[in-house]
Design goal:
8 helices, 368 residues, two-stranded antiparallel sheet, alpha+beta
């Protein structure tokens, strides 16, 4: 038993010495190729076995012939181990190079493509994560391009919508200043209308900037959905009468919601104003509210005739107006973007779909 313990001790000391030397070599070569590191690991394994064997042989006073035989066997094992390590290292290095090339392609704006050869399990897992990241990045690029397009359109449309009333205001002011206005009262009333319209546009821009900056402060309170929708209908009734549109709100459940009353009134007001302006005279705008499995759903259905399918994903984008019209009823394309921002701030969601004769805008809010 004592001899076995001594042999184990001598073998451990010899192997430990080789292992320490190998660790030092690996640290020095830690920035080199993987082939070098694998070769060092294989060499350390063989050197540890050889060092342990030679230490035991020296302690046991083996004959030179026996020591030569042991050394030869270990040398052959070392040769095979090094060849195997180099081959494995070359394979892993090639797979890593292919993965690096594939990664560079989606970093430059392309998409990630899995390497043709099946890599090792760890590299395959890394490739799957890179493919998922590539998909997310591609989606993000698409959203960024769409947002940039919306911003450019918004700047162009706002510039036009502000330039037109400003030109009119300037002409009316000059006419009043020169005493050329036959009916100064009518000019003053028109000036007030144009100022109110520009003030509304600037207010929408300010509200949208707060939403996009994440600085929209909500003051939620428990409110009856019936009262909230009723107030919105009452506020939109004069505009509906002016356009000859009938408002219907007889399918509203008595459901409590935890929302900011002021902001949600703006949401409903924007939806109703948009629906009234898009509905032809003698048409109907219907409001409904009910509880569902996903929350409380408020819908506004108009008679606009429907939205082209290709435009449905853009309805709530900043600057979208559904047409290239530049007349005042077209608006600046901010109302629906504000609706989505406020609803998402309440942890809700907005949807739009075409129905017979028009489209239906839905707002889903969490239940109180």
């Amino acid at each position: 038993m004592t001899d076995v313990l001594l042999i184990a001790l001598f073998a451990f000391l010899g192997a430990a010495a080789a292992g320490l030397i190998g660790a030092a070599v690996l640290r020095l070569l830690r920035h080199r190729s993987l082939i070098v590191s694998l070769s060092v690991v294989a060499g350390v394994a063989v050197a540890a076995m050889l060092a342990g064997t030679l230490t035991v042989a020296w302690a046991m006073f083996l004959s030179p012939h026996d020591l030569y035989v042991v050394t030869t066997v270990v040398a052959m094992a070392a040769l095979i181990s090094l060849v195997t390590a180099v081959l494995l290292g070359r394979r892993v290095a090639a797979q890593s190079h292919e993965l690096a090339l594939a990664t560079r392609s989606f970093g430059d704006g392309g998409t990630f493509a899995m390497p043709a050869r099946q890599p090792a399990a760890e590299l395959a897992a890394l490739a799957r994560e890179l493919a998922a990241t590539s998909a997310k990045l591609d989606s993000s690029r698409g959203r960024e391009r769409a947002l940039e397009t919306s911003r450019r359109e918004l700047v162009a449309w706002i510039s036009h919508d502000l330039r037109t009333p400003l030109a009119g205001l300037r002409a009316m002011a000059e006419a009043l200043e020169d005493g050329m206005a036959a009916d100064s009262g009518r000019y003053l009333r028109q000036i007030r209308v144009e100022v109110e319209r520009m003030n509304s546009m600037v207010g929408d821009l300010f509200e949208l900037s707060r939403i996009q900056a994440g600085s929209l402060a909500l003051a939620p309170a428990r409110i009856s959905l019936h009262d909230l929708v009723g107030d919105a209908l009452a506020g939109a009734d004069p505009l509906a009468r002016e356009h000859g549109v009938r408002l219907v709100g007889d399918r509203i459940d008595e459901v409590p919601v935890e929302v900011d009353g002021k902001e949600m009134s703006r949401v409903l007001g924007n939806l109703l104003i948009n629906a009234i302006r898009r509905t032809p005279p003698d048409g109907t705008v219907a409001v409904a509210a009910h509880r569902s499995d996903s929350g409380v759903v408020v819908s506004v259905t108009d008679g606009c005739g429907g939205i082209p399918e290709e435009d449905l994903p853009r309805v709530f984008d900043t600057g979208w107006r559904g047409s290239h019209a530049r007349t005042p009823p077209a608006g600046a394309g901010l109302g629906l973007a504000i609706v989505r921002g406020i609803v998402e701030a309440h942890a809700g969601r907005t949807e739009v779909r075409n129905v017979q004769g028009g489209c239906c805008f839905s707002v889903t809010l969490p239940t109180a």
